[in-house]
Amino acid sequence: MAKLSANEAFDLAGELLADLELERLRLSSCAMKTARLARLLGDDDHFLIFKYEIAGYPSTPNGVQPEIWRLCLKALRVRKEKIKKEDSNTEEIVEKADLRSITSIEENAETLKLRLSYFQPQPISISSANPNQIISTPMRNVSLEAQIATNYRNEMTLLAARRAFIYDFVLSKLFELRVSSTAEDIFEEYRKKVDTHLSRLIPNELRRLDSIRDNLASNNPEDWANAGHSCRRLLQAVADTLYPPSDKLVKSAGGREVKVGAENYINRLVMFCESRMASGVSSKVISSDMKFIGERLDAAFSAAQKGSHADIDISEARRFVIHTYLVVGDILELNAESSSPKGKLDATAEVFPDEPASAAPFDSTGNSE
Fold first, then answer.
1. What is the pLDDT along the chain (369 residues), one digit of tens a residue?
2. CA distance 330 to 205
3. Which of these, 36, 79, 78, lies nearest to 54 by C-alpha position?
4. Distance between CA atoms of 256 and 363, rounded to whole angstroms?
5. Please, what sign has the CA dihedral across residues 102, 105, 109, 111?
6. How far apart are CA 27 and CA 163, in angstroms?
7. Is 96 left (phi over 0), alpha (psi -120 to 50) or beta?
8. Global pTM?
9. CB neighbours (10 Å) of residue 188?
């Protein structure tokens, strides 16, 4: 559903830019479509702003409420003016907001334009039966004409500012959606490759992948926490297959003795990577990533055991999933490089170790000894 909304928002943003650039629609109609764009994107502030742009900003006999004033500021509706104080000749700067709807401004501009057209010279014929009478054309009300022209320019300037505000919002959202879509496409392609390898490595654990996706799509914070727990168990399952647990302490290449028990899944994953790596730099990078995600997942798991999900929000749950996929992908690619002549993570690469992992030396920082 979220993907469909993003696609709809992307198409709508592109259509709106064309409407604004080519002036295919009245500005009030563009504001209505922009409110829909904000709703699809879950941008509550701008949804209210564009709703008020269409209908006008509410006010009370005592003025504008603080929340409405905040939206006026965000919508660039507030301007500063100098006014003279009544009790002195000094001036002060005050802030004022135009609360009128775009529709009202458009209609007023059209009326002023029509009135202004009446002052244009018209072809007339004047004659008199008295040959001695001097006849002149009617005098133009220059002062009134100038006032109407000034008011018309002010309304058109305000409409131009409203058009620029809407255009900037739509353009920024289009760029955000384009970047987001590209990132999602890249991650989706990567995820499919990782899923293919996981289906061969731990086929009995594939239900966790579906569980992760279902939990992320939920609106329940407990489901977001469960997505993190599923990531933790997924890493444990990968570790159990690639480097089975042992009660014995294993000495690392640096001479340290580390635990490789059932709960020390990060240690075991690092050990497996150390056994397959030629580059010390790559080892440190992957080890650091695994330590980070492992500690975060363990913290989330501990919070869940205490019955608290308050520290886990949807953004963090998504980061858990992304980091987990990246870490698992690095591990499987490393295994594929050492097991396949191609040296790449693809759908046909072998993902099972060629030799017992327990013989591998390593220097781990994950899962305290």
1. 455 577 888 899 999 999 999 999 999 999 999 999 999 988 999 999 999 999 999 999 888 999 999 999 999 999 988 887 777 778 888 899 999 999 999 999 999 999 988 877 666 666 667 777 766 666 778 889 899 999 999 999 999 999 999 999 999 999 988 887 776 777 778 888 888 878 888 887 777 777 887 887 777 777 877 887 888 888 888 888 888 998 888 776 566 777 888 888 888 887 787 777 655 545 566 666 666 666 666 665 555 454 444 456 777 777 778 878 888 887 877 766 666 544 444 433 444 344 333 333 333 334 444
2. 19
3. 36
4. 7
5. positive
6. 7
7. beta
8. 0.59
9. 10
Q: Please report where in the chains the tokens 């993907």 appear, as a residue.
A: 3
Residue type, 308: S
